[in-house]
Amino acid sequence: MSENILEVKNLRAYYKVLKGEVKAVDDLTFNVRKGEILGVAGESGCGKSTLANTLISRKPPLHYISGEVRLLGKDIMHMPSEQFRKMRFRNISLIPQYALDAFSPTRRIKQFISDLVRDHGIKADQKFMAKVVDRLRLVNLDESVLDRYSIELSGGMKQRIILTISTILDPEFLIADEITSALDVSSQRYVATMLANFRDEGIIGSAMFITHDLSILYQIADKILIMYAGNLVEIGPTDEIIKNPRHPYTRALIASLPQVGIQYKDHRLEGIEGTPPALLNIGEGCRFRFRCPYMSAKCEGSPALENVSLDHQVSCWYWKEVESDVSA
Ligand SMILES: Nc1ncnc2c1ncn2[C@@H]1O[C@H](COP(=O)(O)OP(=O)(O)OP(=O)(O)O)[C@@H](O)[C@H]1O
Ligand code: SF4
Ligand SMILES: [Mg+2]
Fold first, then answer.
1. pLDDT, tens digit, 9 for 90 and up, residues 160-177
2. 323 falls in which pLDDT band (50, 70, 90)?
3. Which residue of 11, 41, 97, 210 is most buried, as measured by CB atoms within 10 A?
4. pTM exceeds 0.70
């Protein structure tokens, strides 16, 4: 088997609605290696959750259109759903955005856990619960939380419970969609660090960590994928993306992040004026062109993904001209 856990090639997944197609995942190509944490970032509505859902369960109106996705070498886009169900939790696990909303105020945590795993065909027997208790200790939670109600726990504690349960069968690949966004800053760091610890200890193999917060990715991600309006605009090693971004949009995102300690000499893009385009029936062309200071007539055509270096790719006609005028 290759050292890639996940291989995605020209993936397209659209929402088919009455007025046409919302092209929310449009021609994405990337890999995730064994042991790697891939951070996925971009503005609200750029398609991060759609990407997560495309990999796991495509419920109408979301439809797989084309492209290839291989998880552990297996083609999961064309796999019968029963076969994929068997991989859920065991090989691939998702912590959905808004997972915290799943806690019921009237059920104890123990009951919440057994209901959750039962949906995946797992029995919460004594042996299973003993493992849960062991794992809860890893995230600094005492077994007494099992007898408590969710309203007695903080958001950070609940998110650590979800992280524990989602990874209880040691999946090779975990997708964590905005698991830190509802938390205060110190809990955000804590939960993100826990996820990285799980990877370091071999509890999970690799992960896709989705967030709109690049500063968290700077701390835990090995590689960062930047999405804009349903497209992948840049992907590369974390340090490269933060310190030497090539896409004008990535540069703008990073310029708005004083906490990562990077400052541009050129502030033209700071704040990123304008809004992303609507994705319904969107046509050809670079989707950032309406906000891009480098835009020219050529940008009416869609740019291809090009190699900046072996691990760093960018989708912009003028990436070579977008000088890396960044000072750390
Ligand atoms: N059920 C749906 N039907 C039609 N369009 C949808 C549906 N769900 C999402 N979309 C559209 O798909 C695009 C991508 O949405 P998505 O939720 O994937 O974005 P996101 O990057 O996860 O945003 P956020 O950061 O707010 O979570 C948006 O334009 C959104 O309006
Ligand atoms: S392709 Fe053109 S519009 Fe798009 S980011 Fe590059 S320069 Fe800007
Ligand atoms: Mg989302």
1. 999 999 999 999 999 999
2. low
3. 210
4. yes
Classify 102 in phi/psi space as left (phi over 0), alpha (psi -120 to 50) or beta. alpha
Q: Of the bound ligands, which one is closest to the alpha carbon of residue 18?
A: 1
- DSSP 8-state class, residue 104: -
DSSP secondary structure letters along 242-298: HHS--SHHHHHHHHT-GGGT-EES--TTTT--S-PPP-BT--SS-TTTTT-TT--GG
Give 323 Cα–ligand 2 centroid separation in angstroms.
13
How far apart are the C-alpha atoms of 11 and 7, rounded to whole Å?
A: 10
Name the token pair of 38: 């891939």
- For residue 322, what pLDDT is reported? 82
Ligand nearest to the CA of 245: 2
Is residue 270 pLDDT above 60, yes or no? no
Locate all alpha helices (DSSP H) within the chain, ordered by sequence: 48-56, 81-87, 109-118, 126-138, 155-166, 185-200, 214-220, 238-243, 248-255
- Rounded mean pLDDT, 189-200: 96
Q: What angle do CA 110, 114, 120 make, to 5 degrees?
A: 155
According to DSSP, the residues that pair with 38 across neighbouring strands are: 208, 223
CA-wise closest residue to 137 among 43, 201, 216, 224: 201
Does ligand 2 have an atom closer than 6 angstroms to the CB of 317? yes
Q: Which residue has the tokens 């835990």?
A: 220
Average pLDDT in the chain: 92
Specify the DSSP element, H or E, that contains 202. none
Residue among 298, 308, 301 at smallest CA distance from 247: 308
Residue owning the nearest CA to atom 9 of ligand 1: 50
- Round to whole Å and give the CA distance between 42 and 226: 6
HSE, side-chain direction, 13 A CA sphere, residue 95 = 30
